[in-house]
Amino acid sequence: MTLTIGLTGGIASGKSTVTEMIRGLGIPVIDADQVARDVVKVGEEAYEQIIKTFGQDILQENGEIDRAKLGAIVFYNEQERKKLNAIVHPAVRRRMLAEKEAYVQKGAKTIVLDIPLLFESELTHLIDKIIVVYVDNDIQLERLMKRNGFSEEEALARIRSQMPLHEKVKKADAVINNNGTIEETKQQLLQILKEWNAL
Ligand SMILES: CC(C)(COP(=O)(O)OP(=O)(O)OC[C@H]1O[C@@H](n2cnc3c(N)ncnc32)[C@H](O)[C@@H]1O)[C@@H](O)C(=O)NCCC(=O)NCCS
Ligand SMILES: Nc1ncnc2c1ncn2[C@@H]1O[C@H](COP(=O)(O)OP(=O)(O)OP(=O)(O)O)[C@@H](O)[C@H]1O
């Protein structure tokens, strides 16, 4: 039996930092942000639907989707965001399920699915246990502005487009508090994986 762990949190709460650690332990990770990029590549069905819905203006000169332009639309307008989610999420769900099955077939002991919108996009049925990576609001804002070079307004638009982190914490089987140092975060991760016999 494979243990499937869902790793979630808020934007810039530290999911990628934690998945790096998990990969370092030899546990496979499927990254929903990466899958969401793959399913909108030129020629994919979701790519065509995005152009139909948002027009040619959101394309770069080489025909690829201009993510900054699309982000500037969807993170400021809930209706537009819902339209994009309705196109991208079903394709993400299908591919995540297929990738997960491939690891299960190979007999992996543990798999981690890194899904920022785990609760928002109805993917909880894919997993057995949920870890939420938590940070305080002010630290999240500061790290997001620093990492992406966003203004406070740009960062807040993204944070506000997600379920509040304290609500995600209530739905978690385990919480990693990432307010502290990277080492403190790693110790919490190891403790959880040991408790779940996931190593
Ligand atoms: C709007 C897009 C083009 C912006 O791309 P960009 O390269 O700037 O951001 P990236 O994809 O790396 O996402 C960064 C973070 O933004 C947050 N985020 C992304 N999409 C959404 C969304 N629809 N709603 C809320 N938060 C989101 C997540 O925390 C994610 O980790 C892109 O995020 C997208 O296509 N989103 C829709 C698909 C989706 O929901 N992806 C999330 C995982 S399923
Ligand atoms: N404990 C920590 N101490 C200091 N900086 C940290 C810590 N954890 C993460 N960071 C930094 O905060 C930023 C956000 O972390 P990370 O990219 O892991 O978040 P994420 O949840 O994967 O974000 P996204 O949802 O956008 O994919 C990064 O620049 C990372 O280097």
TrEMBL record:
HAMAP family named in the record: Dephospho_CoA_kinase (MF_00376)
Compartments, record wording: Cytoplasm
Record's keyword annotation contains Hydrolase: no
Top-level EC class: transferase
Function: Catalyzes the phosphorylation of the 3'-hydroxyl group of dephosphocoenzyme A to form coenzyme A.
SUPFAM superfamilies: P-loop containing nucleoside triphosphate hydrolases
Entry protein name: Dephospho-CoA kinase
Native source species: Parageobacillus galactosidasius
Family: Belongs to the CoaE family.
